[in-house]
Amino acid sequence: MGREVAESCVEGIMIEMVSAYCSRFYANKQDLAARRLESIGFQVGVQLSERYTMDRPRFTDHLEAIKFICKDFWNELFKKQIDNLKTNHKGTFVLQDNRFRWLTRVSIHPSPITQADSAAPLVDSRAALTANMHLYFPCGIIRGALTNLGVPCAVSADISNLPACSFVVRIKV
Amino acid sequence: MAKLVPRSGDAVFASVERVNAELFTLTYGAIVRQLITDLEETEEVNKQLDQMGYNIGVRLIDEFLAKSNVSRCVDFKETAEVIAKVGLKMFLGVTATVTNWDAEGTSCSLVLEDNPLVDFVELPDTCQGLYYCNILSGVIRGALEMVSMKTEVSWVRDMLRGDDAYEIRVKLLKQQMGRDRFASIPQAAVIL
Q1: Looking at CA atoms only, how far is residue A118 from chain B in angstroms?
Q2: Inter-chain contact B23–A16, Cβ cutoff 8 Å?
Q3: Which SS3 state, helix, strand or coil, does residue B69 take?
């Protein structure tokens, strides 16, 4: 095991990074903020995947690269593997982490039901927005890692089933 | 109520959740790189890193007080030792040495030989004037302000700029003795 730091250091800078980009730098341009956060993640993903695959031969196909992300890569980052991998065999993969570590400190508060309509969404939209902003960074990491391994792709996240988080990888042809 | 025994830096570090330092180092590096691209002015980047650090410090102090069982420091000398041996250790896994006290005992240096923020980092020539580790000085300033110490924290030596160590100068400007600003601090840290 290499050098370690407290997990709160990583969480601290991640939360502050999202806050700085969303509230200070691009307060009125959330999509720009999102792109910057994803870009930071991308850089980190490229470098991490480079380090973690230094001693092994190149992956032979996309599936091998995706499996590497699900197992070894996820393990290095989160001390666990991806819980569920699905594919439509047409270039889309869904990587599901049943308890995504980086979301455990971002809570989603159910908003009080003030309307008569009982079908009102329970998730406060502002909190959902914040949670989504926190996902651009890990999506970027996955995209950076896969791109570095020869798998150009687009990555998005789905948190409709908290605390599980699904990362949707669409391979670019 | 029994007095809580303060824990050593090693003990606290061993008890917190830890992660691969690489993730931390690379994330920080990517943030600095992105800030340089987006903000262009080095001085602005330094300012933002300090601000981010301040915000982090303001939050980290609670975790520090809760996990270290450190009670109210008697004086600033004790505060400096606690930051160097327990605070830095608990979060970054490294300790610092406290040196160069001034005559009044309100100003000192924290010297770090080892600094996880800078693993594998080299500054290009285009980054003259960048205080790469400025987040750290911000953290210290923010954390101390939460325990009612207003300080000025600055860099004296920086290995990324060619010096032989990292030296942070911490100067106590004002210490409030009143209790009204202690609202968010757990009982262990309040003088009863």
Answers
A1: 37
A2: no
A3: coil
Q: Is A169 helix (H, G, I), strand (E, B) or coil?
A: strand
CB A149 within 8 Å of CB A169: no
Are the Cβ atoms of A20 and B33 closer than 8 angstroms? no
User: What is the maximum alpha-carbon separation in chain A?
Assistant: 61
**Chain-centroid distance, C-alpha A13:** 15
Q: Is A37 helix (H, G, I), strand (E, B) or coil?
A: helix
CA distance A130 to B84: 34
Residues of B in contact with A3 (CB under 8 A): 20-22, 93, 116, 119
CB-based contact A17:A137 (threshold 8 Å): yes
A77's tokens: 């980052």
Q: Which of A8, A161, A172, A118 is nearest to B64 (CA)?
A: A8
Cα–Cα distance measured from residue A27 to residue B118, given in angstroms and rounded to the nearest whole number: 30
User: Quick check: A84 contacting B, CB < 8 Å?
Assistant: no
Determine the 3-state secondary structure of A77 from DSSP: helix
Q: Are A130 and A105 in contact (CB under 8 A)?
A: no
Q: Is A98 on the interface with B (CB under 8 A)?
A: no
Which segments of chain A are extended strands (E)?
4-6, 84-87, 92-97, 153-158, 165-171
Alpha-carbon gap, residue B67 to B77, rounded angstroms: 21
The tens digit of pLDDT for each residue in A12-55 reads 999 999 999 999 888 889 999 999 999 999 999 999 999 999 98
CA dihedral B182, B81, A14, B187 (to 10 degrees): -30
ipTM above 0.95, yes or no: no
A7–B27 C-beta distance less than 8 A: no
Q: Which residues of B touch A77 (CB under 8 A)?
A: 19-20, 23
Is residue A105 over pLDDT 80? Answer: no
**What's CA B58's distance to the chain center, in Å?**
11
Per-residue pLDDT reduced to its tens digit, B101-125: 999 999 999 999 999 999 989 888 8
Q: Do A13 and B31 touch (CB under 8 A)?
A: yes
Task: Give the span between the Cα atoms of B119 and B45, in whole angstroms.
Answer: 20
Inter-chain CB proximity B24 and A10 less than 8 Å: yes
SS3 A104: coil
